Amino acid sequence: MSSIGLILILVLYVSILFYIAHWAEKRSNSKWTTNPYIYSFSLAVYCTAWTYYGSIGVAAHSGLSYLTIYLGPIIIIPTWIIILKRIIRISRVNKISSIADFISLRYGNSRFLGAVVTLLCVFGILPYIALQLKSISDTFNIVTNTQSSSNIFSDTTTYVCIALALFASYYGTKYVDASENRRGIVTAVAIESILKLIFFIIIGVYVTYFVFDGFSDISTKAALLDHYDKKNSIGGLTEGINWFFLCVLSMFAIFLLPRQFHTAIVENNKETHIRTAIWLFPLYLFLFNIFVYPIAWGGNILFEGKGLNADTYSLLIPQFFNNNVLTVLVFLGGFSAAISMIIVSSISLSTMLSNNLLIPYGFVGSLENSSQKKNNKRIITSRKIAIFSLIILAYFIYRYFILEYSLFSIGLVSFVVIAQLAPAFFGALFWKRGSKKGAVTGIILGFIICFYTLLLPYAIGISSSSSTFLQEGLWGIELLKPFQLFGLDYLEPIQHAFFWSMLVNTMSYLAVSVSFSGNYRERNYAEMFVDIDKYITNHENAFVWKGIAYISDIQKVLRRFLGEERTTRALNIFNLKYNIDKDITTADARFIKFAENLLTGHIGTASAKILISSVIKEDEISLPEVLRILEESKENIIINKKLTDTSNELKKLSDQLKHVNQELIEKDLQKDEFLDTVSHELRTPITAIRAATEILHDDHDEIPDELRKQFLKSIISESDRLNRLIDKILDLEKFKTGKHKIYLSKNDISKTINSTIDSVRQLIKNKKISVVFNEPPQEIKAFYDEERIIQVIHNLLSNAIKFCAPTDGKINIAVIEKDNHLEVHIQNNGKGIKAEEFEPIFDKFYQSKNQNVKKPIGSGLGLSICRQIIEHHKGTIWVESTEGEGATFIFTLPYYNTTENQ
Amino acid sequence: MKKILIVDDEPNIVMSLEYTFKKNNFEVFIARDGQEALDIMNEQLPDVIILDVMMPMVDGYATLEQIKNDARLQNCKVIFLSAKNKEKDIEKGLSLGANLYVTKPFSIKKLVEQVQELIQ
């Protein structure tokens, strides 16, 4: 394939990525860019070109050890649900934007430690970036069948490098606040992760099923090659130990690599995304490894004895069969893996460089007095330059140092260097005693060991057998042989360096921490880190500080970075959160921590502290005092919680009181209304009586006999009405106040109904109504007060008779047995009742609007009393009706007709 | 002969009123609710209407409103009859335009006197 053609394809591919990043950046809040899958796939930035090509090389040359790089993470990832969540919480509340921030903040916000971590990361990662460039260059040459060029200007990698540097410095520095999410980059990385996996699986399937005849075909043919068995087993104890160390090494890497810290922690915007990542990411790693074996051994079979670079088998095989499309796809997959790593790594390294090295040691002083605009510009420019120079520096390392090493070896060297952060990092999470001195000592000593046993030999040239340093040790001392330090001779160089450096690092970290306790600030942050779950909401409370500080001074500093508007807004939020009067002028510990946090994203933890410290006057606090304050704040939290509980309790009680009061007011109103209605109802018959009596009194001579009789009759009937009314009112009140007792006894419901029907038989006859009672065949017994239930049935029957169809009136009565109660239905064929009246008709004195014009004789209390009686029996009463088709009144009585009650 | 319309849903009260007003030379019409009252009013254009407030269907207040809207009934006197005897009920009745508000129970003799006074 021609160089020009491939370059055109690359340009197209990179443009698409640019576009995706651009698109995602604009939709930073959409669910397309902030979902757990994007998060999980972005973690796969772990799989670099080294994975993509190098694993095959290792599998072809030395066997299974490539697996360890994936086994380590797969083993440790389940613990993410606890550990990663913790790290994310700590980082979120402290606005941490890199691993250097994380470690240095824990050890007392130490500027020096931050710088040490940064330098170590740059040292470890730069060759790693260079390695990615090497892979791009190597594979480009293979695809285009060209030789690597010694001229910088004719080397395609140069241009790729510049393009990447531009892309990363543009998208990676969009926000001054480094702890903000960069959705564009993350989405592009996630897409690349998906693509590289797909392309890798495609080539895997191609080699396994098209070039060969499945896995078994390859293994049968490969078994004939030299050392096949040896390469495909773990081997003995020695190899087992080597395996073990590599697994541990990669476990550390998944936490500590700056790019992993960046994607997993800084770019995490929801804790719950971890839940998807812990299954999806291991699955991803697993899928990536399925086809390593067939491609590696397929290549070994095809190219036996040709001395080709096994790292590039995945390109060489399709090329061997003249499959250009596949070759280009594989190349693009590897290219994706490489550039993802380069971009994310350079962004995270540049943040560290600017926030932990350049600003705190360089121009923090000058930032203090500049305007916000200028400051932000300077910070961003410094990061842009950092990204750019990192990539360019990596380019030169690639050009002049690592041309001859395999992908795998350089990658592991990087891992070992980064692993030096492990004791300080994990100590930060779990051990409160860990101190800054311990961390610094550990990291530096570890690095020195690492330098001696690994970096130096690599620089000299691992293969140069002539070096006396390698063969005989420093100054010819046997024990100082870099690959067999103190006579440890059964570990491979990487594992060997890892073992010794880790041992020295951890031991010195522990020993120094225990021997020299740290200052109060370290102890303070130790508390905040280890007990993060306790401080997750009001973490500013946990910050211990004493001294004199004015809010206005701090505000001035904040404005230089956040601007007027954001500073005011942040202040308001703070005052609201802690319920602080806005007129207060002195700042407390909480405000100082809050202000430091606001600056941290912009300039890193160390510089934030320096800037804030410059405008406040801090009193020295002794360590015991910090411990006392922390203890107090813990107690305060407990007391606070108790107070909150008590106040909640009180609030509940007062709510209940309010509720009861409201009910009382309502009851009182109801009572008034009731009295009103009662007096009205009583006055009506009295009026009739009074009028009739007056006439009889005044005109007793002139009234015709017939009329006199009528007046007298009306007096009698209205007196009766008055009496009935009084009875019913008293009845109802007695039920309501509980003066009426219900005397339950076992009764037969059919018998009760029949005797009630008998009592109204005359009335039925007069009105020519047919009453049908569908008597159940068996006895149904229930516990109820028979006299009261007769009262209910009588009332319902009277109503039914009253409202029956004027001619051909029909009333049906039925008893229905249900699971735990019985229902009595009394149905008439009158005009029916409107749905909106189903409830109110049970109210006192409610007179249906649908009644005949002629007022029916009734007290307006019957149904109300029925409801009282039924409710006292723990039953319910209601009406069902379709207008024009009659109405059915139904009441239930709890059913006691069970065997145990008989 | 003056025409009087008695509107009440209590038959026994109506009976007494009917007897007394007839004796006092009124032409008496009876309605049992507001709707019936409106029908009769339209036909007979009575001089006096005795109106119970609490009635099914169309109540006293609504009936009064109809009367006030009818130009032909401008000179018609309206007397509210009600068991509601609170200050605010009386005020409400009078403010709506009733000429008299009589609370139940009442003296029938006095009522006749008041009606006669009104139409003179």
From TrEMBL, chain A:
Catalytic reaction annotation: ATP + protein L-histidine = ADP + protein N-phospho-L-histidine
GO terms for cellular component: membrane
Segments traversing the membrane: 6-24, 36-53, 65-84, 112-131, 151-173, 185-212, 240-257, 277-296, 325-349, 385-402, 408-431, 438-460, 497-518
Lipid bilayer topology: Multi-pass membrane protein
Record CDD domains: HisKA, SLC5sbd
InterPro entries, alphabetized: HATPase_C_sf, HATPase_dom, His_kinase_dom, HisK_dim/P_dom, HisK_dim/P_sf, Na/Glc_symporter_sf, Na/solute_symporter, Na/solute_symporter_CS
Main location (coarse class): membrane
GO MF terms held by the record: phosphorelay sensor kinase activity; transmembrane transporter activity
SMART domains reported in the protein's UniProt record: HATPase_c (SM00387), HisKA (SM00388)
Keywords: Coiled coil, Kinase, Membrane, Phosphoprotein, Transferase, Transmembrane, Transmembrane helix, Two-component regulatory system
Name under which the protein is recorded: histidine kinase
Organism: Flavobacterium hiemivividum
TrEMBL record, chain B:
GO MF: DNA binding
Gene Ontology biological process terms in this record: phosphorelay signal transduction system
Domain Response regulatory: 3-119
Alphabetically ordered keywords of this record: DNA-binding, Phosphoprotein, Transcription, Transcription regulation, Two-component regulatory system
4-aspartylphosphate, modified sites: D52
PANTHER family: RESPONSE REGULATORY DOMAIN-CONTAINING PROTEIN, STRESS RESPONSE REGULATOR PROTEIN 1
The protein's name: Response regulator
Provenance organism: Flavobacterium hiemivividum
Native organism taxonomy: Bacteria, Pseudomonadati, Bacteroidota, Flavobacteriia, Flavobacteriales
